[in-house]
Amino acid sequence: MAITYTWTVTNMSVLQTPQPDFVVNAEWLCSGVDGDYSADMSGIQSFPDQQGDNFVPYADLTESEVLDWIWEQMGENGKSNTEACVEGQIESEKNPPVSPTSEPLPW
Known about the structure:
Elements: E1 4-15, E2 22-34, E3 37-46, H1 63-74, H2 78-94
Antiparallel strand pairs: 1-2, 2-3
């Protein structure tokens, strides 16, 4: 079964300059589900000047638009690396790693 990823914006912080309600960072959550197994990873992404000449009023923002900002700021492999971490957590749930045990000394 393939992992289904869901990205959500959980919170945004704003300043009132240079525009009213100028978004300066967003908290995100990446969740992955594979059958009965699930995992997630969260973070905060800052936006130094993402809006510039393309300022969108806060009330008109969509989650999709903000997610695009997040992925752009994460860099070329940021989104795929995050999803790979979630996949690794799910794989560890499916096949827990074997940990060494401490045994009494033989003497």
